[in-house]
């Protein structure tokens, strides 16, 4: 019998939200180490809120969160960075008027400049196009190049766990596939990845597990390939009722 991979991320009865509106409602799930786990569900299901709560941008009202067995409930983003957790949020999060190299240097501010400059070449090996634009303003890069720069900035910290929210927004299909292949390579090297992605079918093809949320609760946790292969699952999560819900709330 094959041995199950260790658990990297664990939510235990987590309740979290904004002021009096709770988005996560008694949410419990586990994500395996060294795997890509995809969060799916309609708009408002709580997918991005999971990432923000895990990264310390939102404090849980109740419940526990563990990272590689350690209780990190309520820890600050700075503390979590020190524990090997990195977050690439949705949208553009660069300093547009600064150069590519300056954005990278700021990404490694917690490392110190000497160590940051030592690590930058290894990150740029993954992104040849970004390497060619080091002196360009970040705002002048294409959407795909900006997303690569954001991911590269996060990788400077050599994270054990990478959270990434909607990496495909604004990118061409070819660049999206390059991003997914990079994430697959990182997982192959042992990085745990928790991802939210609107391009569900394509993301499932590159993921190991999928967790479906509805109203901030877990409703399904299955291997990604099973969801892709099961016509009933496809109707439920890639079309059908959930797609209609998503369209109505857009």
Q: Can you offer a commentary on this structure?
A:
- This protein has 250 residues and is an alpha/beta fold.
- It folds into two domains: 169 residues, Rossmann fold; 68 residues, no CATH class.
- It is 38% helix and 26% strand.
- The chain contains eleven helices and ten strands.
- Strands 6-7-8-3-9-10 form a six-stranded mixed sheet, sandwiched between helices. Strands 2-1-4-5 form a four-stranded antiparallel sheet, covered by helices on one side.
- Helix 7 links the parallel strand 7 and strand 8.
- Helix 3 runs parallel beside helix 6.
- The radius of gyration is 18 Å and the shape is globular.
Q: What topology, given as strand order, has the largest sheet?
A: 6-7-8-3-9-10
Distance between termini? 45 Å
Secondary structural class: alpha/beta
Question: CATH superfamily membership of the largest domain, which one?
Answer: P-loop containing nucleotide triphosphate hydrolases
What is the overall silhouette? Answer: globular
Give the SSE map.
Layout: E1 7-18, E2 21-32, E3 36-40, H1 47-54, E4 62-67, E5 70-71, H2 77-82, E6 85-88, H3 100-107, H4 113-124, H5 128-131, H6 143-155, E7 161-165, H7 173-188, E8 192-196, H8 200-205, E9 209-214, E10 217-223, H9 224-229, H10 231-237, H11 240-249
Parallel strand pairs: 3-8, 3-9, 6-7, 7-8
Antiparallel strand pairs: 1-2, 1-4, 4-5, 9-10
Helix pairs in contact: 3-6, 10-11
Offer a concise description of the structure:
With 250 residues, the protein is α/β, with parallel strands linked by helices. The chain has helices at residues 47-54, 77-82, 100-107, 113-124, 128-131, 143-155, 173-188, 200-205, 224-229, 231-237, 240-249, and strands at 7-18, 21-32, 36-40, 62-67, 70-71, 85-88, 161-165, 192-196, 209-214, 217-223.
């Amino acid at each position: 019998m094959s041995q199950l991979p260790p658990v990297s991320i664990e939510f235990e009865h987590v309740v979290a939200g904004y002021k009096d509106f709770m988005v996560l409602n008694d949410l419990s799930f586990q994500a395996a180490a060294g795997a890509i786990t995809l969060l799916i569900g309609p708009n408002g299901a709580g997918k991005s809120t999971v990432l923000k709560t895990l990264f310390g941008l939102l404090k849980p009202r109740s419940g526990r969160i563990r990272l590689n067995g350690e209780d990190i409930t309520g820890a600050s983003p700075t503390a979590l960075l020190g524990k090997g957790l990195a977050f690439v949020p949705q949208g553009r999060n660069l300093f547009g008027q600064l150069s590519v190299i300056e954005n990278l240097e700021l990404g490694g501010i917690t490392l110190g400049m000497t160590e940051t400059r030592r690590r930058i070449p290894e990150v740029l090996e993954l992104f040849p196009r970004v390497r060619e634009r080091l002196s360009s303003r970040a705002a002048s890069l294409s959407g795909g190049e900006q997303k690569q720069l954001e991911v590269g900035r996060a990788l400077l910290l050599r994270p054990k766990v990478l959270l990434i929210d909607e990496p495909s927004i604004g990118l061409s299909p070819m660049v999206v596939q390059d991003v997914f292949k990079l994430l697959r390579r990182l997982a192959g090297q042992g990085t745990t990845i928790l991802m939210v992605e609107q391009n569900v079918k394509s993301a499932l093809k590159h993921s190991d597990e999928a967790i479906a949320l509805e109203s901030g609760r877990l409703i399904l946790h299955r291997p990604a390939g099973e969801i892709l292969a099961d016509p009933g699952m496809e109707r439920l999560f890639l079309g059908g009722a959930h797609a209609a819900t998503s369209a109505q709330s857009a």
